[in-house]
Amino acid sequence: MSMSGAEAGGLRVQGRHRYSFAAALAAGSAALSLLAPEGVGAQAAAAAAATILFLLMLVAAYDWRLARQQHNVMAALAVAQEHDPVARVLADIDGRILFANRVARSRFGTAASGTLVGCLGDVFDNPAGIIDRVSRDLDQTDGRNEDVQTRNGIVRVAAHTIRPGVIGWRVEPLPDSPQAGRAAEYLPIAMITVGRTGAILFMNDAARHLAGGRLKSLDELFVALPVRPGQINQIRGDTGRVNALVVEHKTSASRSEIFLLPAGEAATPALGGLEAIPVPVLKLSTEGQVLALNMQARELLGGEAGEGDAMFDHMTGLGRPLADWLRDVAVGKMVNHTEFLRLTRSDKETYVQVTLSRAREDGEKCVVAVLHDATELKSLEAQFVQTQKMQSIGQLAGGVAHDFNNLLAAISGHCDLLLLQHDQGDLDYADLIQIRQNANRAAALVSQLLAFSRKQTLRPEVLNLRDTLADLTHLLNRLVGDKVTLTLSHDPVLKTIRADKRQLEQVLMNLVVNARDAMPAGGDIRIETEAKTLPEPLRRDRARVPEGDYVLVRVIDQGVGIEPDKLQKVFEPFYTTKRTGEGTGLGLSTAYGIFKQTGGFIFVDSTPGIGTSFTLYLPVFAERPVQTAISQDPVAPVTRQGDGVVLLVEDEAPVRAFASRALRLRGYTVLEADNAEDALELLSDPAVAVDVFVTDVVMPGMDGPSWVRLALKDRPNVRVVFVSGYAEGAFGDDGPAVPNSTFLPKLFSLSQLTETVNQQMH
């Protein structure tokens, strides 16, 4: 019960004792004044008695005035609540009823003059428990309420403190009860309230008139179940089967309101009362003019739509004229057909699911449109389609890059073999150098494809962005030219990150070059860094950035900007806003792939005519205890004459031919196999001694890591060199790491191959 109420009750008890105690004290003082001998003592006792009697009169007058005020307040409350259409009761903290209004006296009868438990006994099975739950800790809240399921429907019991010691109670049937739902009762549109199991809890007058009486369940009203919201359903009317457009509004997990809008040629009831329907509804002419719409529809359309407007001015994206769709619905060619359309709102992108049904009002044909906000659904669909598209392009890019790397490896490798036979004075030397340079340029393009498909080889290291940008500034200033000013601004406290420095520099250079190209007349490019902590995940552009510490890098320009409809396409491969011949469309897609593989994120903001800003989110590197390592000689090892046996497994004959010749030129004995199965068959002979396996990772049949793991069971001391255009992630997570192995990414030169084998050999 209320603590304030309990204290008030205690004060009332103290007041009664106060009067008796004061009277006894005054009487005692008077007796002492009579018994005491005349003199100072008698005078003092008489004065004390008079003082106590005077104070007693003051306290009594104050209590009378307070009681009178409280009585007046209670009387005013009684007058205010007497004609309330809901049952109201005032009770003390012990549950004794002090007042019951007209509705309560009519509903509860003589029990309204007794206790609260007795008053509610005919409504609830356990009134005492409900009263205790609702009134518990009431002094700490503005009020409490509880919805209770009864035999006759749901009843809401509410309570709040009127004054210390007095609680006001309200007993109100909710709209699933026949006593309530007065507003719905007189709607011109048929409305029913349905429970979880399909029981009809309430039907308004229009629904009872349509169905020919009060029904108990949905199967008595609908010809076929389940009910199809937003579509035409057949119902059993008083005069036969009737077509009706069903609009459903979920009011809770266990209840829903169903509105039945007349549809079809036989429909004659008026379509007024659209404002009472809690979903967006429009009434249209057969030409598409808005005849009526409710407030929900007006808000969904951005507050810009009104009667007399054309529906076509507010929706697009059907793929054919909307007038044709309306005409087909009006003549009955299309029934229960739903379309997803885009609203032409200027403030935000909004999609709606539109269901049309034909109707007749005052003898004239019309069309009723029910709208559902499908923006979130379309966003999820677009996200799924985008993911599928990017994965497909990534697989294509990875496969093409793998084949191109094999071709380029053969070209570059044989070029290196030819360079061994020529010196700088030969006429062919310059041509060979040109071939190798163009092969390297092609390899750089392939690396962009691999970056997009997230299969390029990364060499991450711990970086301080301040130092990285300082090293890169000189090159960036040369890239931007004389018309553009490049400025850097750093956060004073930046934590370290872990990323591939070369790839990160490539991303920054690409963004700066794009910014330069967006400002043909010159301007300013700002690179800003910021330390940022996300206390909770950040959701943006269909991406979710986990909470944690990040280092942000922003590249901001004052260029022409990017149009809103093109903004989400800039990270797609081969998409470019530049003219033909000025860009491949791989730069930003490469940046996207690099950041996704690194665990970072990249976002873009742009305003046409003002500029563009790219924001990079790089996760802060979590420091780990550093183990002291044996210092390595930074000088590159000198290639020594080979003296071991190498098993070369490569399915591409040109690459295998180049690698075999290169290794043999260094003195190694080379055994060749064009697939994993042949390699294992060759190793089945114990007399064959092998020091190093050099194998491609991706091959037809068994891949490189799989056959190597089998071979190492019998030859555990053999060292391994894996060769591939893919990153180490191509090894997969389905097997243990291969011991004593290293990775050599394609495109490799003759010297890189022989040095790697030499390091593994020794």
Please tell me about this protein's structure.
The protein has 762 residues and is an alpha+beta fold. The protein is built from 20 helices and 30 strands. Strand 11 (281-284) and strand 12 (290-293) form a beta hairpin. Helix 1 runs antiparallel to helix 2 (40-82), helix 11 (375-419) crosses helix 17 and helix 13 (465-480) packs parallel to helix 14. The protein is elongated. 32% of the residues are buried.
- Low-pLDDT stretches are 1-22, 176-182, 265-271, 580-586, 625-641
Q: In angstroms, what is the radius of gyration?
A: 43 Å
Q: Estimate the strand proportion.
A: 15-25%
Q: What share of the residues lie within helices?
A: 25-40%
**How many strands, what sense, and barrel or not for the largest sheet?**
6 strands, antiparallel
Lateral strand order in the biggest sheet? 12-11-16-15-14-13
Q: End-to-end distance, in Å?
A: 86 Å
Secondary structure class reads alpha+beta
Q: Please, how many helices?
A: 20
Number of separate strands: 30
> Average pLDDT across residues?
75
Globally, the shape reads elongated
